[in-house]
Every structure is written in structure tokens, then in C-alpha cells.
Design goal:
481 residues; nine-stranded mixed beta sheet; 35% helix; disordered N terminus
Length: 481
């Protein structure tokens, strides 16, 4: 881990009269355009789409005096001095190539929020930041719950639907922010300097956007740059520690690990059913601080305990007491469709983890139960399933496959778990979920868990993973009716 005084390039930026192009409408583009217009910048919004929603958003902005170009997101408007982009826009878009050739900087909405965080004489709230392939939202929400339990004014913001721009420019003042950041957002946030940050895990994801695993990891690693107090990493995932080692941080910033095993000095971990801290204590070589019981984590699945330890590490880096960690974890309620227990029917537990849309998340979900009837399938997004199935084979009572790319999972099961009975549902209508649950009930035995952990995206059959999880829960309720 590099050390030394890191130059903060986020000097005050005067937007008055600066011609800014906002790339993309939607949840980030519209607020960015409004904020920039309010700061005195002539704003032009460019957007690839020209649908009804885009036209409605464009009309709203045009009444403010913002110029909007629909159906043309490729051409750099004349006179542009800065681009603020929606995070999902890929770096290889022609607009950004033109900007690079013209020497025009490109920021994301996170970079804009960072630059605006201390305007108007307000004390800027420090950021405790979280990224990773899986677990970001849960960890940030746990962290916010812990911070609130400590009596701090906080909010869970960033990639979870609460706008960072609103948090830094709104009327409410915060002591600290719990910030979820995606790899897309980090790519476009070169000046970000967090108080402390965590990378929870790294697995192949969004490689079509980043171009390679190396580029994806590098963008995740940006979250550590310039950290002041702690870089939190996953002891079980060496790639996260490698990112810490490569980061250039403030003098005195520490590497802090979290582990499901017994913690070494400068780590948080688990000892005899307790979450313990050997990082933020006096004489960490000899002492440990009990933070909470494993049973205080809801649900106490292994990967969720890891999330809790990461959240605790960030909170402890901010000086939060052990009691607040315990109270915050007890108060936390996970979002729907994240290892959510739906019901017990005839001695079988039915669990909705529809949010497990990739193999890494599904691996963690499968590891939480001993005997599983697995409901899986959907859009594979280029994923392969051999490693996932091989690792879970001994836990599988049976499998029910749905969705467009179910054959890929069926073939992996044939190779690595040939003894596991498989039901292949040759239908992709939404009613397939009821049949899938009925088939799973037929395969299950008392003590088993029927687990919806699809390892795939949902859009072949459902609007989103929420609708898929809702369909599963409804089907389970019909079983018990």
C-alpha cells in the first residue's frame, strides 16, 4: 500500500458560464442537469433514446432553459468544456472519444457530487464507501443502520437509488455518508477520496463494459485511492488485498481485513459465535473487542456475516462504539429478495434470493444451506456454471431449471452432479414459476430448503428480479393455502 500525501484534485470548480454536456437522461442525468443549471452553467443534455419517457424528461428540463438533444448521444456539442455522464455509458462511446481528442474532461455524477460536497460554506460530510461484485447494497444499509445507532446523521446513498447529488446539495446536513459505488461510477470519479472504503469481493461481472477483468478490478480499486483512515479488504479474496497494496493513500491509512475465521491483528472476524474486532482496539496484538453475536446478523448466512464485518470495520474506522455496531446490526432489516425466508411448508423452508443474478452471488447463497432444491435459470449474460455446480453438488437434493439459458446450467449439472435429479421446464412465460415451485416441492424432503437463487438475470421472463421474487413468493403461498 503506497503512502504519502495524496493531492486532492477536487479544487472548487466555478460552473458559471461553463458549457457542460450531460450524457444521458434518467436517474442521474436529470438531477445533474438541474444542479448544473442552478450553478449557472449553460447545459446541453444528449441522449441516445427518443422514447416517451425521454421526451417527458426533456420537456421538464427545457422549461428550465436546458437544451436537450434526443436520439443523438454520439456528437460532442460545440463549445463543450465538461461532460458529466450517466454511469452506464461505456467508455468507448464516440462522444467520449471526441471529448478526449478535444481535451474535454469527463466526470460521472459521483465525481460531480464529490466536487460539490463542501460548497456554500457547509462542512463536507466524510464518505464511507463500499464496492464489490456482490453485497454492496446490504453492506451499505447495515453501515447506515450502525451509524444511526451511534447517533450520527447519515444516509445510505449512491448506487442504491438515493442520489448522492441530492445528499450533498440538499438542505439536510449529515455527519457522515454511507456510499455504495459501482464499478461504472468509480470509473468516472477520478477525484474521489474517501475517509475509508471497502472492496467486498471481486468476480467477473460487467466485462462487456470494462473490456477485461483487469480493467474491472482496476476501476473497483479506485475506491481506495486517497483513503485517509482505513482500506477494508476481504481476507478470503486475495484480489481485494492486492488492490489495497496498489493504492496510493494518505499517510497513516491502514489496511484492515475481515474474515469469517479467527481474526489476526488488524482484522475483524468471528470467534465462537461472536463478531470481534482486532483492528480498532488498543494493543491489537493482544486484545480483541466483542462487537456482536453472529445471531445479531439477519440473516446469519456466511456471506451476510462477511457483509456485517465489512460494515462494522468501516463504522469502527469512524470511531463508532462496539455497542452501536451491535445495536445497528440488530435493527437492520434486509431488502426483499435477498435470502428472504418466505415460508415453511410441510417441513421445507422456501427462500427467495432472486437478487442472486450472477454465479458469485448464487455461490454464496448455496453455501448457506445444507440440503437444497435449487430453482435456477434465466439470462446467463455470458456466464458459465461449471465451477458453481461443482462447488455446490453435495448440497443439492434436486434442481428445477427455468428461463432462456437453462440448458447451460443443465449441462453443468450433468457434468458435475449427474446424480442430482433435474426438472427442465421448457417454458419462459411468467406462469412457469408456479410450476417450478410445485416441482421443487415434489423433490424436497422435510429439512430441505427450496432456494430461488437463479444465477441469471430475469428479463427473459420478468421485468426485473423483484418481479421474479414476487412470483416465487406468490407460488409458495399457493402451496400453503
Amino acid at each position: 500500500m503506497g503512502s504519502g500525501q495524496v493531492t486532492d484534485s477536487s479544487a472548487p470548480f466555478d460552473f458559471r458560464g461553463k458549457h457542460v454536456t450531460v450524457a444521458g437522461l434518467g436517474v442521474s442525468g436529470v438531477p445533474a442537469a438541474k444542479v448544473l443549471h442552478g450553478l449557472g452553467a449553460p447545459v446541453t443534455v444528449v441522449n441516445d433514446g427518443d422514447d416517451e419517457r425521454a421526451r417527458t424528461q426533456a420537456a421538464e428540463l427545457e422549461t428550465l432553459g436546458v437544451t436537450v438533444r434526443l436520439g443523438d448521444g454520439a456528437t460532442l456539442p460545440e463549445g463543450t468544456e465538461l461532460i458529466v455522464t450517466a454511469p452506464g455509458w461505456k467508455p468507448d462511446k464516440p462522444l467520449f472519444t471526441a471529448a478526449h481528442e478535444a481535451g474535454v474532461p469527463v466526470w460521472g455524477d459521483v465525481e460531480l457530487a464529490w466536487r460539490l460536497r463542501d460548497r456554500d460554506g457547509r462542512k463536507a460530510a466524510p464518505w464511507l464507501a463500499v464496492t464489490g461484485t456482490n453485497g454492496k447494497t446490504t453492506t451499505v444499509q447495515m453501515l447506515a443502520s450502525i451509524l444511526r445507532a451511534a447517533g450520527l446523521r447519515t444516509a445510505a446513498v449512491g448506487n442504491i437509488g438515493v442520489s448522492l447529488l441530492d445528499a450533498v446539495t440538499g438542505d439536510e446536513e449529515y455527519d457522515v455518508l454511507a456510499v455504495e459505488l459501482s464499478s461504472y461510477q468509480l470509473h468516472w470519479a477520478p477525484s474521489l477520496r474517501a475517509h475509508s472504503a471497502a472492496v467486498l469481493n471481486l468476480a467477473p461481472d460487467h466485462l462487456d463494459w470494462h473490456g477485461s477483468m483487469e480493467a474491472y478490478a482496476a476501476d473497483k480499486g479506485r475506491i481506495y485511492e486517497g483513503n485517509r483512515v482505513a482500506c477494508v479488504y476481504n481476507v478470503a479474496d486475495k484480489a481485494t488485498e492486492d488492490l489495497v497494496r496498489a493504492a496510493d493513500v494518505e499517510e497513516g491509512c491502514r489496511a484492515v481485513g475481515f474474515t469469517l475465521g479467527s481474526p489476526a491483528p488488524s482484522q475483524l472476524g468471528v470467534v465462537e459465535g461472536l463478531l470481534v474486532d482486532r483492528a480498532f482496539v488498543e494493543d491489537r496484538h493482544r486484545n480483541a473487542q466483542e462487537l456482536a453475536e453472529v445471531s445479531d446478523v439477519n440473516p446469519p448466512a456466511p456471506h451476510n456475516i462477511a457483509n456485517a464485518l465489512a460494515a462494522a470495520a468501516l463504522a469502527r474506522s469512524f470511531g463508532v462504539s462496539a455497542a452501536a455496531v451491535r445495536d445497528g446490526l440488530r435493527a437492520f432489516t434486509p431488502d426483499a429478495h435477498r435470502i428472504a425466508h418466505v415460508a415453511d411448508v410441510d417441513g421445507v423452508a422456501y427462500v427467495d434470493d432472486s437478487k442472486a443474478t450472477n454465479t458469485h452471488a448464487t455461490e454464496a447463497s448455496l453455501a448457506a444451506y445444507e440440503s437444497i432444491v435449487w430453482i435456477a435459470g434465466g439470462l446467463a449474460k455470458g456466464a458459465t456454471f461449471d465451477e458453481l455446480v461443482a462447488g455446490a453438488a453435495k448440497r443439492l437434493r434436486g434442481a428445477v431449471l427455468i428461463g432462456a439459458d437453462r440448458a447451460l446450467i443443465r449441462e453443468a449439472l450433468a457434468r458435475h452432479a449427474p446424480e442430482v435429479p433435474v426438472v427442465d421446464l421448457d417454458r419462459t412465460d411468467t406462469g412457469a414459476m408456479l410450476q417450478a415451485v410445485q416441482e421443487a416441492q415434489r423433490l424436497a424432503r422435510p429439512g430441505d430448503t427450496v432456494l430461488l437463487a437463479p444465477a441469471c438475470a430475469s428479463m427473459d421472463m420478468f421485468t426485473n428480479y423483484n418481479k421474479r421474487g414476487d412470483a416465487f413468493a406468490q407460488a409458495v403461498r399457493e402451496l400453503g393455502a
